[in-house]
Known about the structure:
Largest sheet: 12 strands, mixed
Radius of gyration: 21 Å
CATH architecture of the largest domain: 2-Layer Sandwich
Helix content: 10-25%
CATH topology of the largest domain: Alpha-Beta Plaits
Structural class: alpha+beta
Number of domains: 2
Strand content: 35-45%
Amino acid sequence: xxxxxxxxxxxxxxxxxxxxxxxxxxxxxxxxxxxxxxxxxxxxxxxxxxxxxxxxxxxxxxxxxxxxxxxxxxxxxxxxxxxxxxxxxxxxxxxxxxxxxxxxxxxxxxxxxxxxxxxxxxxxxxxxxxxxxxxxxxxxxxxxxxxxxxxxxxxxxxxxxxxxxxxxxxxxxxxxxxxxxxxxxxxxxxxxxxxxxxxxxxxxxxxxxxxxxxxxxxxxxxxxxxxxxxxxxxxxxxxxxxxxxxxxxxxxxxxxxxxxxxxxxxxxxxxxxxxxxxxxxxxxxxxxxxxxxxxxxxxxxxxxxx
Length: 306
C-alpha cells in the first residue's frame, strides 16, 4: 500500500508522497520509413500491436516519434519505434517476428537501425532467408543492408540494430479523479506531454491503462490481477487507497531507454495533469509500487515535482 502522506499540493492537485517502482529491461530502437506518413504509421502500428505488457505479450513496444523526411534515413516519412523485453533473448525474438510479419509485409516500407547500443542484434539478418536465396547483401560505407525481392518490388532493411541493457520499464503515474471524464482528461493531457520526451513510450492503448494490476492473485497461476485497492467499486469491501471523493482512476505506464528518460517523462506528465487542475482533471496523483522490494528503480514523485 502506498504511503498516503502528501508530498505537495500544486494548483489544487494533491501529489502523494509515494514512488513508482520500475524494472530493468533490454531495449532497442528501429526506424521505419515508407512513401507516405500514412504507410509508415500503418507499419509502425502493426509492429507495435499487442505489445502492451510483457506479462502476456512478450514485449512492450510503441512509437517514440514521427520522423520527418528531412531527418529520416532515406528522405521519406518515418516512425521511430522502441521495443523492450525482460532480456536480450526476448528482444531478439520479438524484433525478428514483428519485423517479418508487420514491416516486411507493409507497402513501400524500409527499416533501419535507430540505436547505437552496447552491442548489436539482427534486424534484416533475422529475416533475410525469406528471400529464398535471392537476398542481396550490400554495404554502404560502414552500414550493412539486405535487399529482399518482394512482389511489390524490393524490401531494404539494415542488417543489425543496437540493443541496450539500460532500459527501464514500469515507470507510472496514477490519476485519481471524481469521475471517469476527469480521470481521462488528466491522463490524456499527461500522455500528450510525455510524447514530446525522447526515448520513451507509453505502451498501453493511447498510452493509458484502466486495468492497473497487482502482483499475483487469489487464483492459482495468476501472475497479476486487478489492483483492488484502486478500484472505486470495491471501496468498503477491500483495503482501499481511495477516499470517498474518488470515483475513477487511470494509470500511465512508461518505458524508456534510460532511467533519466523515464523520470523526464513522468515530470512532464505530472506537470500537464497539475496544470489542468482538480475540477477538470485529477484530484490526486499517485504512483504504483510494491514496497520497493521488486524493482531497483524508484521514481519518487516529490523529486520530480513540476
